[in-house]
Structure formats: C-alpha cells, structure tokens
Amino acid sequence: MTGFFFAMLVTEHQNPDLFYAIQEKNLARQYDLLTNFIEIGIKQGPSSVDKYMLWALNHVAVAGISQFGGRFREEPIYVGNHIPPHFNDVPELMDRFISFIHENWDNYPPAMLAGYGLWRLNWIHPFIEGNGRTARAVCYYLLCVRSGSLLPGRKTVPERIRENPEPYYAALQEIDRIWADGNLDLSSIEAYLANLLEAQLRDEDNPEK
Q: What is the domain extent for residue 118?
C-alpha cells in the first residue's frame, strides 16, 4: 500500500514535463471547483468561507504532485526571505483569517477584501504546497462574491498575476514590511488588484464588453 501511495506522485525533479502538465490540469480543475464555490458564496455570503473550502481548493491544486494537499502543514516551511509562522500556530491563524473576512465583509470594498485574502494566506503559508495557487483562488473568490457575480473576461485576475508576478511579489513584500512594524495597510494590493480587474473587464475578447 505504501509503494502504491508513492507511485501516485510525480516530482518536478523526477519528470518536469509531466509535473507541469499535471499542475496545469490541476489549475483548470481548481477553477471549475472555484466557480462552484462562487455560486454558493453569492447565495450564502461570508458564511460560506471556511477551512473546508480552503482545504478543497488546495487539494485540487496539488493532487498528484504533493502528498499532503488539503490539510494544514505540520512542519516548518521557508519562502525566500519570508519565514512563515510556526506550524503549531497555523490553525489559530487560519481561524483568525476566516473571522477577519466574516467581520469585514461589509466594511471592505471587493479589491481590498480580496487583497487581504491574497496577502494573508501567502503570509501564513498554511499548506506544504500550492499556497500561491490557493491564495489566488481565494482572492478571486472574494472579488467575485463580494461583487455579487462571476466576473466576465477572457483572462481572469489569477491568470494575470501568474503572467506577470513581479508587481504581485512587490505588493506582498510592502504589506509584510508594514505588518512587521505593527500596522496593516492594504492600499498597495488593493490598487494592484483593481487595475488587474479593470483589465479583465475591458478584455477585447470579452463578449459582455
């Protein structure tokens, strides 16, 4: 049984072509699941945001390329110059993350709320693999549900982030610096997402333009 478990996993080093092919297919499946969640969220509001939704989005994103998808990490992880919180703190931090979204649902405009979700999930890094993919999915979920519809456009905000990630990293790092000083200022990520969303809605191939 153990051998079968390991056989159902491909690593980037072992077979990079297959790894990236599976990753792309996983992203397509994650988007299908995300649209289902958006439909539910539009009906139910902030109460639909919970850890089970996050687990499901992560599991789909890393199926076949990570053995611990869909569950919070129980080991340390390092991301460039950022050292995420200790894994023992992850469950409470995620409870606080979800609570923040619920409590500020009507206080924050869509791009700001989505920006918080994008930054905070990356800061906590609650999963072993697929944190960025999960954070971008949650970001788009918050943009759509808080706006009240599945937003039109040929190329979505998460796709635009992946296409040009440098401004994305810069915005996250700026908020990290402010947070380290004991403050929270989401203006940089809000402006960044608002520009991406405007580009999505103005897409030339958008049939609803």
A: 2-201
User: For residue 82, what is the DSSP state?
Assistant: B
User: How far apart (Å, rounded) are the C-alpha atoms in residues 206 and 53?
Assistant: 29
In 3-state terms, what secondary structure has residue 111? Answer: helix
Give the separation between CA 45 and CA 16, rounded to whole angstroms: 40
- Give residue-wise pLDDT tens across range 12-51: 888 899 999 999 999 999 999 999 999 999 999 888 999 9
* Number of domains the chain is built from: 1
The token duo for 179 is: 């947070």
What lies within 8 Å, CB to CB, of 105 at 6+ separation is 45, 46, 113, 146
Compute the CA torsion angle 139, 38, 111, 62 (nearest 10 deg): 10
Q: pTM, whole model, 2 decimals?
A: 0.91
pLDDT exceeds cutoff 70 at 208: no
The CA distance from 32 to 22, in Å, is: 15
**Domain-embedded: residue 206:** no
